[in-house]
Amino acid sequence: MTPAQDEQVERLFHVAIALPAAERAAFLAQVCAPDEELLGAVERLLGGHERAGDFLDVPVWQAAPALIAGRARFA
């Protein structure tokens, strides 16, 4: 992708993430049509964002006991 396309993907990601989850697919279908590459790039960012969850919301010193005991979940 070109730098301009990367910027477009980033802009669309930020708009989409601010929408309620139920409205994102319709928004992306409208603004990305018929560019499947653009749609896929934005969807991959959204998926990564969702999978990350609250990973960085817990300080490592609080998460360490669960990590050591093997009870932590990251996905």
Task: Identify the notable features of this structure and list them briefly.
mainly alpha, elongated, 4 helices, 75 residues
Total of helices: 4
Instruction: Calculate the mean pLDDT score and round it.
Output: 81
Unreliable residue runs:
none
- Considering DSSP H and I runs of 4 or more, what fraction of the residues is helical? over 70%
Rg (CA only): 16 Å
Overview of this protein structure:
By secondary structure, the protein is mainly alpha-helical. The chain has four helices and no strands. Helix 1 (3-18) crosses helix 3. The longest helix is centred in the middle third of the chain and has 17 residues, at 36-52. The protein is elongated and about 50 Å long. The mean pLDDT is 81.
Task: Please outline the helices and strands.
Elements: H1 3-18, H2 21-32, H3 36-52, H4 60-69
Helix pairs in contact: 1-3
